[in-house]
């Protein structure tokens, strides 16, 4: 690395701009829609034949939740930002079975919670959200309306949606529209 | 007044009157009424005019198949033409208007068509309006369209919301009549996830119109008890006002729910209609049977009604559809109506039974005429008499209501939506659903079962059987005892009656009568598909629900074959009309398609950017400065500033793909036509991707971040396409390669910093040494930024031809880093530039985009032939690229174009002609693919694909734009207008 220049232009505050900073929570009767804080979303890529995740312990030890994306692919998520150093450590620990692509800025989380969350989501996704078919902890990559997204049932009445940053505002607005029939009057 | 409300009876709420209007006249109905029943209660029986002959028409049915009582409901943006009055629930303030009449429903000039009827038979306009041909579009067609028709759609926008919803179940039961309800209960009690959908406002189906008692309770009460139990089961969902309109692949059913079509003041936050897509593991059609009309003269006269409908109006709505009735029947169902009418005190003049044998158990007072037919109904706008023919005699009977029943057609439409053909049954005298439908079964009257008890049992058995197939142990309940049910056993169909004096209608809605079908057969259109098109039978909005089987029977009769041999036309969705609004759902207006925003969107917006839609993205096109009133002023300034100083441009919309794994380099080497295997770590390379057919697919730079990791960029437009392509290559073509892919487009805010002062600006941001020696052209790597505040990726690549870098930072940092770059660049005269300036800069340099990569060019056409590796054993497109034609002389090649006179301009799309050549297709030499005003050249410039273009630099040509009538003299030149040696890149 070259010699550090002292006269650096600093990053102005706030250094990061959340994709959904301007979207206030939408509170309906029985369902609430909120943007999640932009924490950590790592895309873990193994061979497509890899179904189980033998590395789950390492991911958990790093404080991340594991969510299935596709055969051989997972998201490892955390509500807080992971430091670059920790990311390097984890990436090295997972080699060579798994490659890590940081998507913490590329993907944005949106949460729908409340007793009517599944009802609202069913307006967008073809995934069967009945607890028998989509239990807690299950994830699916699906379209929500016209937008590709990654859906996880976090608990009985809470669904987290991970969407590409560029579509986050549009998806938030679409979900708001889908929940409109339960508006508080 | 003919029809009227009885003092008692019906399921209507007599304490809840509702006012409404029909053709401006104030009327009153009751809660629980349909619009049709409310009109009948007010004695209104003329409700519409027919499509072609403008015949007076009344209410024929009480359900979804109604062909006559079509009205416009609502006003303004909410007006809905061709609404079936029989399906429209009454609400307070409903405004209904009759259609296809002028000046009024009662006095309709168009009815003169009826006098011309000998000339207006099937196909008349094909024969009549033959010549002169020019008059067809100008006169005949507009006239015919004006004279015939139904309601008119409004031009106002619909103020309401619509939405779509998915649902999943083990068993979908279509129809909540006796069979459907008992099936749903059997499966629901067993624990299966059941959805029951019914088109009516209340579940119960035929039970709501029935006077039999079931298990000691009235039929409607029995239905209500079944519904209550269903609603108590958490695994059962009951959808009312929901018409299942189609059966699609993968056991998906479409249904439309009329959420607020029945309310006086729709709530803005709720949808008007909801489109359901129901995924069912099994489905049961309990859709009942449609009563078959009888085809006799004047059978469309208001006052002639289906017997089952008359019974529904009587028992469900408490309405006598006439004061003096007759029944014309071929089966026992007419006797159920006879019994109920007499019990309600309505005078029943006669029962005309086509059968010789008298039913033994009729004990009413009406005169029973066996072996008889009704040949004609008379009365014009309201039935006054019928002519009965029996034993060689005719007699006229004065009545104002004639109820008819020609037997029953099981409603099997959905069962045939996936290609199955109905099967004719002589025993049932009806078409039945094809057998062995995967996943779908039928029960009750749809399954040709007759009688309430049998339908309950059939439904329960089917529900239990389908649940058991899915592993839910179910035991069908014992069927309750049913009393006073008149069961109509199947009888031989009566397709037509002889001796009618006036038109006997087969298809009421399209005004097709018996003689039209005979004409079709005589003129060679006897095949059912041809007869349909020749006569238009079955082609109206009711899709021939009442008419098709009769038409088939009549065709069979004329051709002397069985109805089975005639066959049916193809059943297709939709079962009943579905509004476009429901199909569009929420996807209209600003929700029509998603908006995709760069992480720099708000940053650019705050700087006054004018945006341009590119696909789903909104990209800054240019950044107007104070005083700039024309886009060209802004763009020219931005271009000049980049060439003179430095500019900042958002490149975040480029597709970005991370490619990892020990075989990542080998993978790229196969995907690109130029070599990538030995690209060193820390280097970027321009890559050209071909399709299998050898044509250029996409281009972009790919950098090696680490030994086993690459960062690919694609064009904005093909980002998703390239990702799919790579996935296909990885998963299907070369699964043996150890490599993996992830789209990282949205992870990075990518900023181009271009211009001679780019390094001076960026070196204030980047901590690492970015001197030309340390970070030369095509260097790439991770860098530290802003005093170790952040890490990013820096690429020494250039689209503008200037000294340039692209800096990628995690997306959320984009605006802050852009601010930092602008602050650092202030002293150097930095400006933000948009997609327009970007385009000018790249055209000046002859860099291609998808304007040039148009699917017909190979690398050599673009002057990139030397990029194609001759050493690699294989890559996508290699084999097909070797085709003779793709290497032959005379292909269109990339050239530059300038006007001879700098004041002249030309546009993309204009064609190139040799100077002096005639403007013919044969003389076409190619076309302008990209054009702009170049501040550097001082005139319009263009890139073009021109035959043999590479060898024609300097040739004078004509740029011809036939669309705009522009002819410009120009010259072909090298496609690089600025710095052809590329010295600026390496500064």
Describe the overall structure:
The complex is a heterodimer of chains A (185) and B (987). Chain A is α+β, with helices and mostly antiparallel strands. Chain A has helices spanning 56-61, 84-94, 117-121, 165-178; strands at 26-28, 31-35, 40-45, 65-70, 73-78, 99-102, 107-113, 139-144, 147-155, 158-164. In chain B, helix 4 (178-189) packs parallel to helix 5 (219-232) and helix 9 packs across helix 10. In chain B, strands 9, 10, 13, 14, 15, 16 and 30 form a seven-stranded mixed β-sheet that branches. A six-stranded mixed β-sheet of chain B has the order 43-44-45-42-36-46. Chain B is of the alpha+beta class and 987 residues long. The mean pLDDT of chain B is 95. At the A-B interface, strand 6 and helix 4 of A face strand 9, strand 16, strand 41 and helix 19 of B.
Shape call of chain A:
globular
The low-pLDDT segments of chain A are 1-5
Estimate the global geometry of chain B from the Cα principal axes: elongated
Coarse structural class of chain A: alpha+beta
Strand content of chain B: 25-35%
**What profile does the largest beta sheet of chain A have?**
6 strands, antiparallel
- Poorly predicted sequence stretches spanning 5 or more consecutive residues of chain B: none
Q: Distance between the terminal alpha carbons of chain B, to the nearest Å?
A: 97 Å
Summarize the largest interface: chains and residue counts. A-B, 63 and 71 residues
| Total of helices of chain A | 4
Q: Please bin the fraction of helical residues of chain A.
A: 10-25%
């Amino acid at each position: 690395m070259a010699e550090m220049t002292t006269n650096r232009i600093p990053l102005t505050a706030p250094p990061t701009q959340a994709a959904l900073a301007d979207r206030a929570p939408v509170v309906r009767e029985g369902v609430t829609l909120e943007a999640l804080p932009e924490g950590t979303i790592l895309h873990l890529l193994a061979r497509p034949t890899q179904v189980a995740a033998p590395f789950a312990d390492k991911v958990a030890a790093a404080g991340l939740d594991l969510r299935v994306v596709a055969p051989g692919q997972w998201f490892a998520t955390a509500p807080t930002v992971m430091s670059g150093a920790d990311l390097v450590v984890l990436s090295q620990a997972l080699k060579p079975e798994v490659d890590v692509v940081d998507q913490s800025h590329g993907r944005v989380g949106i949460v729908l919670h409340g007793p009517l969350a599944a009802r609202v989501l069913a307006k967008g996704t073809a995934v069967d959200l009945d607890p028998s078919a989509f239990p807690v902890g299950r994830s699916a990559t699906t379209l929500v309306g016209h937008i590709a997204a990654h859906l996880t049932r976090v608990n009985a009445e809470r669904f987290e949606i991970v969407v590409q940053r560029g579509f986050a505002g549009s998806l938030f607005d679409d979900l708001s529209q889908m929940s409109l029939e339960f508006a508080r009057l | 007044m003919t029809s009227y409300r009885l003092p008692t009876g019906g399921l209507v709420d007599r304490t809840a009157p509702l006012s409404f209007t029909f053709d401006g006249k104030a009327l009153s109905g009751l809660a629980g009424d349909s619009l049709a029943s409310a009109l009948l209660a007010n004695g209104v029986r003329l409700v519409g005019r027919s499509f072609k002959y403008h015949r007076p028409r009344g209410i024929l049915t009480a359900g979804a198949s109604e062909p006559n009582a079509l009205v416009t409901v609502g006003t303004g943006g909410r007006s809905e033409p061709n609404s079936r009055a029989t399906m429209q629930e009454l609400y307070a303030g409903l405004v209904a208007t009759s259609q296809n009449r002028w000046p009024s429903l009662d006095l309709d000039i168009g009815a003169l068509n009826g006098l011309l009827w000998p000339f207006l038979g099937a196909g008349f306009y094909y024969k009549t309006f033959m010549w002169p041909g020019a008059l067809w579009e100008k006169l005949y067609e507009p006239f015919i369209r004006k004279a015939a028709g139904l309601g008119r759609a409004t031009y106002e926008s619909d103020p309401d919301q619509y939405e779509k919803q998915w649902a999943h179940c083990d068993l979908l039961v279509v129809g909540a009549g006796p069979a459907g309800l008992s099936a749903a209960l059997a499966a629901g009690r067993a624990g299966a996830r059941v959805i029951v959908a019914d088109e009516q406002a209340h579940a119960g189906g035929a039970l709501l119109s029935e006077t039999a008692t079931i298990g000691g309770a009235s039929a409607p009460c029995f239905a209500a008890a079944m519904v209550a139990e269903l609603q108590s089961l958490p695994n059962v969902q009951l959808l009312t006002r929901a018409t299942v309109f189609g059966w699609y692949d993968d056991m998906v059913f479409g249904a439309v729910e009329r959420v607020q079509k029945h309310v006086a003041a729709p709530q803005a936050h709720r949808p008007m209609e909801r489109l359901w897509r129901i995924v069912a593991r099994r489905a049961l059609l309990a859709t009942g049977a449609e009563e078959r009309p009888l085809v006799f003269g004047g059978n469309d006269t208001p006052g002639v009604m289906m017997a089952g409908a008359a019974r529904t109006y009587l028992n469900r709505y408490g309405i006598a559809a006439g004061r003096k009735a007759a029944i014309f029947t071929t089966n026992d169902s007419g006797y159920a109506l006879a019994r109920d009418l007499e019990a309600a005190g309505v005078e029943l003049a006669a029962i005309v039974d086509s059968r010789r044998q008298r039913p033994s158990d009729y004990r009413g007072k009406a005169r029973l005429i066996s072996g008889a037919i009704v040949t004609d109904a008379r009365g014009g706008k309201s039935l006054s008499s019928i002519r009965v023919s029996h034993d060689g005699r005719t007699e006229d009977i004065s009545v104002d209501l004639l109820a008819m029943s020609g037997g029953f057609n099981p409603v099997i439409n959905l069962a045939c939506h996936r290609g199955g053909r109905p099967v004719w049954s002589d025993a049932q005298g009806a078409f039945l659903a094809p057998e062995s439908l995967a996943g779908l079964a039928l029960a009750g009257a749809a399954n040709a079962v007759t009688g309430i008890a049998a339908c309950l049992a059939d439904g329960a058995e089917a529900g239990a059987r389908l649940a058991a197939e899915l592993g839910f142990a179910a035991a069908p309940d014992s069927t309750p005892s049913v009393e006073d049910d008149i069961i109509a056993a199947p009888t031989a169909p009566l397709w037509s009656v002889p001796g009618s004096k006036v038109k006997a209608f087969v298809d009421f809605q399209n005004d097709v009568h018996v003689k039209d079908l005979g004409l079709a057969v005589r003129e060679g259109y006897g095949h059912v598909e041809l007869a349909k098109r020749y006569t238009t039978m079955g082609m109206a909005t009711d899709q021939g629900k009442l008419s098709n089987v009769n038409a088939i029977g009549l065709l069979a009769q004329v051709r002397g074959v069985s109805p089975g041999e005639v066959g049916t036309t193809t059943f297709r969705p939709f079962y009943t009309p579905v509004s476009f609004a429901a199909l569009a759902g929420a996807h209209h207006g600003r929700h029509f398609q998603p908006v995709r925003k760069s992480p720099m969107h708000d940053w650019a917006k705050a700087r006054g950017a004018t945006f341009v839609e590119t696909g789903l993205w909104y990209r800054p096109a240019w950044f107007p400065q104070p005083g700039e009133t024309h886009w060209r002023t802004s763009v020219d300034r931005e271009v000049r500033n980049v060439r003179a100083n430095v500019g900042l441009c958002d490149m975040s919309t480029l597709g970005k793909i991370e490619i990892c794994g020990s075989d990542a380099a080998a993978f790229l080497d196969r995907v690109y036509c130029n070599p990538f295997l030995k690209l060193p770590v820390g280097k970027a390379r321009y890559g050209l991707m071909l399709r299998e057919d050898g044509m250029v697919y996409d281009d972009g730079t790919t950098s090696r971040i680490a030994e086993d990791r690459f960062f690919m960029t694609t064009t904005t437009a093909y980002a998703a396409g390239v990702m799919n392509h790579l996935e296909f290559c990885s998963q299907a073509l070369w699964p043996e390669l150890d490599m993996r892919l992830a789209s990282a487009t949205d992870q990075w805010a990518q900023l181009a910093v271009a211009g001679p002062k780019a390094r001076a600006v960026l070196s204030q941001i980047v901590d690492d040494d970015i001197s030309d020696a340390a970070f030369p052209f095509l260097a790439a790597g991770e860098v530290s930024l802003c005093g170790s505040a952040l890490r990013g990726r820096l690429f020494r690549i250039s689209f503008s031809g200037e000294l340039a870098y692209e800096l990628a930072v995690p997306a959320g940092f984009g605006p802050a880093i852009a601010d930092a770059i602008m602050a650092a660049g202030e002293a150097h005269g930095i400006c933000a530039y948009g997609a327009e300036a970007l385009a000018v800069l790249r055209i000046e340099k002859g860099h291609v985009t998808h304007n040039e990569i148009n699917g017909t060019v190979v690398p050599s056409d673009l002057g990139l032939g030397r990029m194609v590796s001759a050493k690699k054993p294989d890559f996508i497109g290699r084999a097909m690229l070797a085709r003779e034609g793709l290497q032959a002389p005379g292909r269109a090649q990339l050239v530059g174009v300038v006007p001879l006179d700098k004041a002249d301009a030309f546009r993309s799309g204009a064609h190139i002609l040799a100077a002096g050549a005639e403007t013919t297709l044969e003389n076409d030499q190619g076309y302008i693919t990209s054009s702009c005003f170049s501040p550097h050249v001082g005139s319009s410039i263009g890139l073009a694909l021109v035959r043999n273009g590479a060898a024609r630099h300097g040739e004078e040509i004509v740029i011809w734009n036939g669309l705009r009538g522009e002819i410009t003299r120009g010259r072909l030149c090298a496609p690089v207008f600025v710095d052809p040696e590329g010295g600026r890149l390496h500064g």
